[in-house]
Amino acid sequence: MEITRPLDLLNASKDKRVMVELKNGKQFIGKLLAFDIHINCVLDDAEELENGETKRKIGKLFLRGDTIILIAPSE
Amino acid sequence: MEITRPLDLLNASKDKRVMVELKNGKQFIGKLLAFDIHINCVLDDAEELENGETKRKIGKLFLRGDTIILIAPSE
Amino acid sequence: MEITRPLDLLNASKDKRVMVELKNGKQFIGKLLAFDIHINCVLDDAEELENGETKRKIGKLFLRGDTIILIAPSE
Amino acid sequence: MEITRPLDLLNASKDKRVMVELKNGKQFIGKLLAFDIHINCVLDDAEELENGETKRKIGKLFLRGDTIILIAPSE
Amino acid sequence: MEITRPLDLLNASKDKRVMVELKNGKQFIGKLLAFDIHINCVLDDAEELENGETKRKIGKLFLRGDTIILIAPSE
Amino acid sequence: MEITRPLDLLNASKDKRVMVELKNGKQFIGKLLAFDIHINCVLDDAEELENGETKRKIGKLFLRGDTIILIAPSE
Amino acid sequence: MEITRPLDLLNASKDKRVMVELKNGKQFIGKLLAFDIHINCVLDDAEELENGETKRKIGKLFLRGDTIILIAPSE
Description:
Seven copies of one chain form a homoheptamer. Chain A is mainly β. Chain A is built from one helix and five strands.
């Protein structure tokens, strides 16, 4: 995986589990199914985390890009 | 349902019940009638939730996209 | 009324009473005279609500779209 | 006065007194001299209000549109 | 001075003293040397005010437009 | 390294360690792999800092540009 | 130095020391190496100030424009 533009990391993370942190402090983990240039994302098998523990299981999840602070591949 | 772009999940959720969470923490559940690229949404048979319980029934509801954090299909 | 795009609901609500909720938590009810793609709205016979009660009567009212969270037809 | 677009209300309010409320909660009343599509406004004989009372007299006043929540004709 | 657009007031205030109020509540007074369509401004002989008193003298000052709430000519 | 535009500093920092500070106060340090005109960044070997100490190790990390306040080369 | 547009002050301040204040209240002082129309800036020999005192020395520093409130030449 060569990363020359920021979205390359998201492309390389497709169909892999990522951790997403929002401006309101919430954390979600799930398989990254899709994203676009606004960083809108869709996760699959998503879970909301609280202090590193699963708070609730959600399934598929659309996250609006402008609420996202960071995305970290977790595998 | 194949999801290659984030809005594919919203398209696949049309006429199905979704949960929408706003920046101010409010949660709404309802049938997704329509959305656009700004993620403006219209729900039908909408209810506002509080701690997972119905707080008020609203009927049809227009939600401005820039207040939305996440949308999760609930069926 | 068929709703395929979010603004269809606003079009169908023209000259009818709607409830508008703002980012600062304020609620207004009034007849929807006009709106545009920014969701700027003009209400007629507008009232500000507090806990579901009329707080003050305002008459005509211009609401800047980027302060609006939701719009719900009330009839 | 026929209002088919939101800015029609502002046009109809030109040279009349309006009340303007800002995102920080401040209220100003004054004669609406000018506005543009960003809702930047110029008031004349402007006063800042506090609890409906005049807090200070300002004269002419430029208000940046993105800080404005609502504009209500007051005559 | 005829004001038909909001920026006409700023043009008419060039090289005159204005009071500028920011979103964070700070107030500055100074001679308006320049502004642009974003309402970026440059003041000369600028002072920061606190409760109407001079808090500090700054000299020339660039203010980013999106932090500005209002501009009032002070002469 | 000659810096005539702000992004020149980021270009000169590619593949070097930088400290990134976010609007929510969080600090990250890592090797700058990529950035774009929105200042979206990808760090490698990233760590979140708290009071100058490593709080957690993250590996690769996508940071959304609009949450970034500052970027400082750390070597 | 003639200032007819706001960015003229920044141009006139190139390679001179400026004080930059951010939306979060932080203040930085340093030599202005570069800026662009978004007011993204690069400072050299930058220091973070606290109550007018040096809090930490940073060296080169990229500041994202949308976090900047004001820039004042300090020499």
